[in-house]
Amino acid sequence: MAEGRTTLRSVLDWFFRDRRTGKILIAHVPNLPILLWFATVLARLLTVEGSTADTLLLWAGSITLGWWAVDEVVRGVNPWRRVLGLGGCIVEFIDGKGAEIGHAILGQLHGPGPLVQT
Q1: What pLDDT, on the 0 to 100 scale, is given for residue 10?
Q2: What is the pLDDT of residue 57?
Q3: CA angle in degrees (0–180, nearest 5) for 98-104-105
Q4: pLDDT value of position 5
Q5: Positive or negative CA dihedral for 105, 36, 65, 114?
Q6: Residues 6+ away with beta carbon under 8 Å from 70
């Protein structure tokens, strides 16, 4: 039984260990692409759904989420970060709903419609 725990510990250590620092890393300070994606999600809360501004922000959000996902796949510091990036690639490039998912999640916090009526 102890051997099974050691094996599991080794696998988890390999999966989450930062290859640069040697520390366990699950999440870290957000980088520029994910911050830009989050900004587009927040900005879409201020727009009317289907408007030109909303569409432009949706495209910008998709591009920045795709940028983040590819960057994580290519430069992720451990297998966990690369799998996270691969998940982002799948959501964004196959489904194309990455920016809409963020908007939908935050939209649940304040209800339907834009935060500011114009």
Answers
A1: 93
A2: 92
A3: 95
A4: 77
A5: positive
A6: 85, 89
Under-50 pLDDT residues of the chain: 116-118
> Distance between CA atoms of 118 and 112, rounded to whole angstroms?
15
Report the alpha-carbon angle 18-68-51, nearest 5.
155
Instruction: Give the whole-angstrom CA distance, residue 93 versus residue 100.
Output: 13
Q: Do 114 and 45 form a contact (C-beta atoms < 8 A)?
A: yes
Query: What burial letters (b/e) apply to 46-59, b meaning 16+ CB within 10 Å?
Result: ebeeeeeebeebbe
pLDDT at 27: 87
Beta bridge partners of 17: 24
